[in-house]
UniProtKB/TrEMBL annotation:
Organism in which the protein naturally occurs: Ornithobacterium rhinotracheale
Keyword tags: Signal
PROSITE patterns: PROKAR_LIPOPROTEIN
Protein name according to UniProt: Lipoprotein
UniProt superkingdom: Bacteria
Origin organism lineage: Bacteria, Pseudomonadati, Bacteroidota, Flavobacteriia, Flavobacteriales
Secretion signal, residue range per the UniProt entry: 1-17
Length: 133
């Protein structure tokens, strides 16, 4: 269930990040005359990219368990990478970061019996909300 929610969140994030509106002048050449036509393509709404660029991934919490601490640090790094790739419009890097996050979520499931598991899980939810903005 968590994987489905993550993939849905990431898919919506990718869709949002790839939506761009730009107005371009495109020359349309016909056999009789040359005309200039306005073409609208997708680009971020004004301020949308700035909002995403100004948002930041919350710092990783400090945990006693070394394995979970490493996990939250890795999640933070992957989330920052995903955010930066989205702002830059780099789909390949965004896909790679998304794959890293998905892999990390799978590894977190193996840590369910640890005392600080809930803190790591809450941090993941916080990061997910930040990326879905």
């Amino acid at each position: 269930m968590k994987k489905v929610l993550l993939l849905a969140g990431v898919a919506s994030f990718v869709a949002f990040a790839s939506c761009k509106k730009e107005t371009q002048k495109e020359e349309v050449v016909s056999t009789e005359n040359v005309a200039t036509e306005d073409v609208t393509t997708d680009a971020p709404e004004e301020g949308a990219t700035a909002d995403l660029a100004n948002s930041s991934i919350p710092a990783a919490p400090q945990l006693q368990d070394e394995t979970l601490q490493s996990w939250v640090n890795d999640l933070h790094a992957a989330a920052e990478k995903a955010k930066n790739a989205s702002v830059a419009g780099n789909v390949d890097e965004l896909n790679q970061a998304t794959a890293e996050i998905t892999s990390l979520v799978e590894t977190l499931k193996t840590q369910e019996n640890k005392a600080e598991y809930n803190q790591a899980q809450e941090y993941y939810k916080t990061v997910q909300e930040e990326l879905n903005k």
